[in-house]
Structure formats: C-alpha cells, structure tokens
Amino acid sequence: MYFYLNVVFTIILLITLTLASFAIDYISKFMEKRINPKFLKITIISILLLLMSIGTYVISELGSWSFIDTVFVSSLCFFGLGWITNITNKASINSQGTVAKFITNNSYKHQYEAASSSEMSLYFLSSLIFLIGSWSAAFGIAYS
After folding, report:
1. Would you state the pLDDT for residue 130?
2. More confident: 121 or 41
3. What DSSP string runs through 102-116?
C-alpha cells in the first residue's frame, strides 16, 4: 500500500513540476521584450534544469529508490512532456496561420508555417539537455 502512495505522489509531483516549468516558459515569452533574449534563455533553461533535478531528487527520496534509477526514468517523463508540448505549439502556430489565410482569401503572408518555425520550446530544450546529461551519467556510472 505504501508503494502505491509513493507512485501516486510521484505522478502528482511530476505534473506539478511540469506545470511550473510550463509557467516559467510562458512567462519568459513576455520578458523577452525587457531582457536580452540570449541571457533570458540561458537563465530560463538553468531554472528548468534546476527544477527537474530537484524534482527528481525529491522523487528518489520519497520512493526510497536510487537517484540514478529515478533520474533515468524521470528524464524520459520530462522529455516526453517537452516533446508533446513542442509539437502542440507548432500545430497551434500552423492552425493560426491557416485560419488567417482562409479569412483573408490567402492574401495574408506571414511566417505562420509550422515547418518553417525553428523555434524550440525552452522546456523541450531543457528536457533534452536533462535527458542527455542524466543518461550519460547513468551509463557512465554503470560502466565504471
């Protein structure tokens, strides 16, 4: 019974941390007008990586699992959520462009194509860094 409570709490903690990360990612888009975008992106990615690391540590302590095992699994969860979010953002941009072209009888010429949008979500980028770093560390520890 205690194991199932830990699993439920872990899922709730992952969802809460992911929502906080999405909020930080959303707020960063508004702050780009006031702060240098390069500095802001590095800061936001650092904050997101810190949140992912702290969340993974809390999950490993509550579940009494080893930290490496928890990082291995939680990094997949974070990456999956980031990947889905990135695809959803591109689909949203594409649908907005399609509606604008339909309303203006294809005379609206703006860069609303999902395929041409190379902008990645900061959450997706930080989850990718977390996945690569954690898996590299896990395999490095396993083979040493």
Report:
1. 93
2. 41
3. HHTTT----S--TTT
| pTM (two decimals) | 0.71
Give the CA angle between residues 3, 63, 50 to the nearest 5°: 145
Alpha-carbon span 10 to 101, nearest angstrom: 44
The torsion region of residue 105 among left (phi > 0), alpha (psi -120 to 50) and beta comes to left
Averaged confidence pLDDT in the chain: 77
Question: How far is Cα 30 from Cα 135, in angstroms, rounded to an integer?
Answer: 33
What CA–CA distance (Å, rounded) separates 25 from 19? 10
**Cα 81 from Cα 51, distance rounded (Å):** 15
Q: Which helix (H) or strand (E) holds 52?
A: helix 37-63
pLDDT at residue 115 above 60?
A: no
Strand, coil or helix: what is 36?
A: coil
